[in-house]
Design the sequence.
C-alpha cells in the first residue's frame, strides 16, 4: 500500500476513535477487561515481564496487564485515546504504565528488548497486518511471547467478504477481518510458534455495537449496516448469527434490536 494510502488509513483511524473515545472507551475498558485476563494467561504473563500493548486504545489490555507484570507501555495513533488511558491509569493508582503516540507498524523499541507484545482488535484496522505481527515478533526476546485478540471470519471467501462488507459499512476505518488460516500464516511468517489459541463467540446487541462505532438509529451508516446484516439472517451467511430480539421497549412500529455474535480469536505465540 502506498504511503498516501497508509496515511489516509491512519487519519480514518484517528477520526473514528476520537469521535468515539467515550462510548468505545467505556465499553473496551470495562467489558473487555475479562478478555485481557484471558490473554494474560495464554501468554504466561508474570511479575517480571516488560510488555508493549500496541494500538492500545483506552488501555484495554495495558491496564489489566499492569496489575500482573513489571511494566507496560501502550502505543497508539490517537491522542484522545492515550489521554483517556493515562487518566484511567492515574485514577487506578497504576504507576508501572507508560503511554506513547506511535505506529504499530513501526514500534519504538529495540530488537529483543521486551518479554511480551500484545494487541486487541487492531489488526482489522491495519493496512498491513502481517507487518504489525512482524513488529510484535521483532521487539520480543527469544522465549518472549506475542498475544493477539481479533475478529475471525469464516474461511469461505464469499462469506468472509460478506462479513467484511458489514464491518466496513459500520466503520470505514475497518480494512479486513482475517480467517484463521491468515493468522496462522502471519504467525509462521514472523518466525513464531503458536502456544495456545481459543475461539470465543461473544454475544452483542446490534444497536450497542453500532453505538460503540458512533452511530444511532436513523444514521445512514446504521441503516446500511442493518440492511446488510438482515440480508444474511436466513442462512447466517456472514457468520454473525443474527436474530431479531423481542420488540419490548421499542415504540410501536419500530424494528426490534438484533441479537448477534462477534467471533474472536485469542492467540498466543512464542519466539523460539
Sequence:
Amino acid at each position: 500500500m502506498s504511503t498516501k494510502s497508509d496515511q489516509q488509513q491512519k487519519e480514518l483511524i484517528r477520526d473514528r476513535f476520537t469521535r468515539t473515545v467515550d462510548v468505545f472507551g467505556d465499553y473496551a475498558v470495562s467489558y473487555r477487561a475479562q478478555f485481557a485476563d484471558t490473554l494474560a494467561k495464554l501468554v504466561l504473563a508474570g511479575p517480571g515481564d516488560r510488555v508493549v500493548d500496541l494500538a492500545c486504545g483506552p488501555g484495554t489490555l495495558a491496564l489489566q496487564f499492569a496489575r500482573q507484570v513489571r511494566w507496560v507501555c501502550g502505543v497508539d495513533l490517537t491522542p484522545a485515546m492515550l489521554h483517556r488511558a493515562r487518566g484511567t491509569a492515574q485514577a487506578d493508582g497504576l504507576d508501572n504504565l507508560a503511554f506513547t503516540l506511535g505506529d504499530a507498524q513501526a514500534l519504538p523499541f529495540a530488537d529483543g528488548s521486551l518479554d511480551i507484545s500484545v494487541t486487541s482488535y487492531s489488526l482489522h484496522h491495519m493496512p498491513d497486518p502481517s507487518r504489525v505481527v512482524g513488529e510484535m515478533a521483532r521487539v520480543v526476546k527469544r522465549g518472549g511471547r506475542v498475544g493477539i485478540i481479533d475478529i475471525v471470519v469464516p474461511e469461505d471467501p464469499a462469506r468472509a467478504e460478506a462479513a467484511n462488507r458489514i464491518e466496513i459499512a459500520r466503520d470505514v476505518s475497518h480494512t479486513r477481518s482475517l480467517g484463521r488460516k491468515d493468522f496462522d500464516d502471519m504467525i509462521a511468517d514472523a518466525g513464531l510458534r503458536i502456544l495456545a489459541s481459543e475461539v470465543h463467540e461473544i454475544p452483542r446487541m446490534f444497536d450497542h455495537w453500532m453505538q460503540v462505532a458512533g452511530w444511532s438509529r436513523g444514521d445512514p451508516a446504521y441503516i446500511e449496516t442493518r440492511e446488510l446484516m438482515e440480508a444474511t439472517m436466513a442462512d447466517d451467511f456472514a457468520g454473525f448469527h443474527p436474530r431479531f430480539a423481542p420488540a419490548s421497549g421499542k415504540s410501536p412500529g419500530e424494528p426490534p434490536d438484533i441479537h448477534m455474535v462477534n467471533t474472536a480469536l485469542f492467540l498466543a505465540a512464542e519466539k523460539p
Remarks:
- The first strand starts at residue 50 and ends at 54.
- The chain has a mean pLDDT of 93.
- The two ends are 30 Å apart (CA to CA).
- The chain has two domains: 3-154+172-202+262-270, 204-259.
